[in-house]
């Protein structure tokens, strides 16, 4: 029997995207199932997913009581997946079509040769980002240079959120010890995986900015990411990770 994959998609006010995204993700590979982690979206994204889940056994919904953050959504999703031994590959993916579902088979192929796979917007310095203003692009690219310098991780895109983990990686990481909750969560998860000795592969993706809805980025999320990389370096020095 083929090993199954679970794509975890956190949502908050993604009603305009989620139905089309579910269809596209499920069409990418017959091994894939979806877990939507919805933070009580006022636009009733969760209800759209619930209607789909009632008629499609490959779709699952986790409702949370409020907007609790990206990191906690993924941690809750990981814990849900690890309770179900059928899932060998566990993905992170955005709900806004910035991550193209057509890339999912490429992740699964790459995962045959690595413990976790990262979708990179900047692989080998080549920028594959569509519809971002130059200021945001420079900020993102510079942030990844900063992460490489401070943490020592040789990743071109440590802040990206399109990822695939073998379940053994998530089983080895103590998810309750993961401190960050915004986009710093992406950096911390990769760092903890590397510290456990797991091998990563980066594959090129095309990242396209959302068409519907609003970005969740804010100054608090950026501040957390800036501080987190120094905490990771410090925790390494005192052998806490």
Describe this protein with a few key phrases.
9 strands; globular
Description:
It is a single chain. The chain is of the alpha/beta class and 241 residues long. It has eight helices and nine strands. Strand 1, helix 1 (15-28) and strand 2 form a beta-alpha-beta unit. The longest helix has 19 residues, at 219-237. The radius of gyration is 17 Å and the shape is globular. The model has no long low-confidence stretch (mean pLDDT 88).
Overall shape:
globular
Helix proportion range: 40-55%
**Helix and strand run:** EHEHEHEHEEHEHHEEH
Low-confidence stretches: none
How many strands in all?
9
Please state how the strands of the largest beta sheet are arranged side by side: 3-2-1-4-7-5-8
Distance between the termini: 36 Å
Helix segment tally: 8
Average pLDDT works out at 88
Which strand-content bin applies to the residues?
15-25%
Major pleated sheet: 7 strands, mixed
Structural class: alpha/beta
Q: How do the helices and strands line up, and which of them pair or pack?
A:
Blueprint: E1 4-11, H1 15-28, E2 32-38, H2 45-55, E3 59-63, H3 70-82, E4 87-92, H4 104-110, E5 116-120, E6 129-130, H5 134-151, E7 163-166, H6 167-172, H7 184-195, E8 200-204, E9 207-208, H8 219-237
Parallel strand pairs: 1-2, 1-4, 2-3, 5-8, 6-9
Antiparallel strand pairs: 4-7, 5-7
Helix pairs in contact: 1-2, 5-8, 7-8
């Amino acid at each position: 029997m083929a090993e199954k994959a679970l794509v975890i998609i956190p949502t908050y006010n993604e009603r305009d995207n989620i139905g089309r995204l579910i269809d596209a993700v499920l069409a990418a590979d017959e091994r894939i199932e979806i877990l939507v982690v919805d933070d009580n979206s006022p636009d009733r994204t969760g209800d759209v997913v619930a209607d789909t889940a009632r008629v499609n056994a490959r779709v699952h919904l986790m409702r949370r009581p409020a907007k609790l953050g990206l990191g906690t959504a993924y941690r809750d999703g990981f814990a849900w997946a690890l309770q179900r031994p059928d899932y060998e590959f566990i993905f992170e993916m955005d709900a806004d079509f910035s991550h193209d579902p057509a890339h999912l088979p490429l992740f699964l192929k790459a995962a045959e040769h690595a413990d976790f796979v990262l979708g990179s917007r900047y692989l080998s310095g080549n920028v594959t980002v569509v519809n971002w203003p130059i200021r945001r692009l420079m900020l993102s690219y510079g942030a990844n240079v900063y992460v490489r310098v401070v943490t020592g991780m040789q990743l071109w895109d440590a802040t990206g959120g399109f990822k695939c983990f073998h379940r053994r990686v998530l089983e080895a990481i103590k998810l309750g010890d993961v401190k960050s909750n915004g986009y710093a969560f992406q950096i911390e998860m990769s760092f903890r995986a590397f510290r456990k000795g797991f091998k990563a592969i980066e594959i090129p993706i095309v990242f396209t900015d959302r068409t519907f809805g609003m970005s969740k980025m804010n100054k608090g999320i950026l501040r957390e990411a800036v501080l987190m990389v120094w905490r990771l370096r410090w925790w390494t020095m005192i052998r806490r990770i």
